[in-house]
Amino acid sequence: RIGEALVAVKSSAFILEYFGNTWLNFSYSFPEMSVIPIENHPAGAMENWGLVQFNPSLFYYLEGRDLIAQKKSVIEVVSHELAHQWFGNLITMDWWSQLWLNEGAASFYQFFGADAYDPEGKWMDRRAVLGVQPGYYTDAFTTALPISQEVYDGSFEFAQGSIIYRKGCAIHTLLWNILGNAYFKGTTQYFKDYAYENTRNAEFLNALQQAADEQNLNLPTELTYIMEGYLYRSGVPLVRVTRTYENLQESVYFRQERFLLDGDGDGSLYFVPFRYITSGRSEESDISWMQLEDEIVLNIQFDTDSDWLLVNPERKSYLITLYDEENYFRLIRELNQENCSLTPAMKGSLFHDVAFVIEKGVLSPDVGLAMMEYLGRETSEIVWFGVLRLHEVFLTNPPSELYEQNFLANVQEALNYAVQLNEDPNNTTSYDVVIEALNMEDPVASSYICVWQNCNREFGPDVGDLDAHVLHHLSRLEGVEEYHCCWGESCKFTAEDWTDFRKHVTFHVYHAYLKRISFPVLDEIGKRCKNEEGDLEMPGDFICQVNNCGKQWISALKYYRHVKWHVSRACKIDPSKKVVDLSHYISCPWRNCNKKLYYVSRVLTHVVQSRAQEKAFACPDCGQCFESKKGFLNHLHRHGTPTHFECDSCHKRFPTKRLLRDHQRNHVNRSQCPLCSVTTSSISN
Ligand SMILES: [Zn+2]
Ligand SMILES: [Zn+2]
Ligand SMILES: [Zn+2]
Ligand SMILES: [Zn+2]
Ligand SMILES: [Zn+2]
Ligand SMILES: [Zn+2]
Ligand SMILES: [Zn+2]
User: Fold this and answer.
1) Its membrane topology, per UniProt (predicted)?
2) Ligand 1 center to residue 544 CA distance, Å?
3) DSSP string, 274-312
């Protein structure tokens, strides 16, 4: 499989050289390095000194066959294990309670190595989002443990598992943020002073402190003291940013508290260094400090009275930000710009933080929904990773009946858009990540099929193509006395009226679309419905009542698209740009309704679902339609029988795909024995 090993081998050679001679300025210890894939390796990879072992799933990549995401994983893991040749092998931590020195550093340096080898890979954006974010969640609960202990006292009261990697990466990033170049200078000195020895946090932090002193950096106090809250205590600070909008030279208030999803702030305060940017100024500000204070005020200069403020834009500090609503709306306007100036790291981080504060209940879900409206044009998987965190929150607590349908429509649009931008769908990471994360069937691979008589023609992911096609079958029939539906095997529908007949047949197409988007729900709860396919029932008469329009439609698909077009006009959304103006409410434009509605997503739900009677789900097995996910779930609980998903590796069975996926992660994730160097695939092993 030598051809499939090229990326792993080439990147190993390059990154090892780069770390030793350029980046860390301290040569690798041996004349030789081997990288070797081992079948059924119990861990993802293991950084043995001079002989790095890989699970084949993280080693092989073949261009044209595998997704770019696979190539990225290989480079990332290679870079991580090679960083360990210094952080871990050259210098080893004194005890497991200082494991973050190894894993945090390797998880941080991996992005610099990967960036040098693959400069187009947006690795610094990946660091900001994928590199650090998964650690926040664990740290947001009262049960969280600190990632380190100053001295080993025989207890195991420090965090283990992935938070060591993610928060560890975030803390190394924080040190880099505070110290700049002195961080790397200090690290090289640390290698010189302690090569082939064991160290504790103090040795590392003192080396950095020394480098900072040599460069006369202006720190508020000793580094060890600053880092105490991040190393020896758990928790992530929430920074509430309140703007005053008085004039262009503006007072902005920053308040901090510990962020907890399962409780209220416990009075903990942190040294919080942070940078910010404002519209039109892409340079980050210098660092401002909250020094164990619960509030500070900054005077910030803005250029215009519609400028936004973005705190911790590249996520170099460890904190969650919450703004006032006006600032969010200004940021949303920026997201909707054709030439949005925010980087993937900034956008991904914004979604990530908003997910946390919405889950906590301190920000209206409507802000999150409004942020999501531009997503049909978002093709960066880095951003989608942040979006999916918000999506998770909304799945547990849907902000509107049509939420899931709108979200999937956005995903579909973004995927189509990515293809349009000449990105091969088999080769874009975003495609891969979104499909995988949403647990969706691949909508391009599985197309729609025309089941009119023996047609069997296949169509792409846009149901509009099938909708247009099916009318060709019908055009030959016009004028007969009685029309018989020939859709599929079981439909017995007949009509004398030509219009009713065409409405019925095109509704089959729309119904196929509803079944398609409902399919992931079956996987999610692991059931199939055992009812027989029933008769097709059409909701409503497809006459548009928006603004007394009165237009009558044959095709359900076109009818709902038409109503949505009205709504987007009413909300002042340019359908191509989706620019949102949230400053005014609108009255429901449906005849005789006039209900007051404030947010685009609410207007859509109300008009399209309550008034035009669009259904949100259709059971893929029996075809029954439902207005809400709740209705569909009830149906499945009553009529469904459990299905199973089996693990390829160990043949355990799981009721849902999601659980299976969680389980399969254990086959590659590493559990390290705290007493010796053995690693196993699971804690129980
Ligand atoms: Zn590691
Ligand atoms: Zn056909
Ligand atoms: Zn029919
Ligand atoms: Zn109309
Ligand atoms: Zn209404
Ligand atoms: Zn059913
Ligand atoms: Zn298994």
Assistant:
1) Lipid-anchor; GPI-anchor
2) 60
3) E-EEETTB-SPPPPEEEES-SEEEEEEE-SSTT--EEES
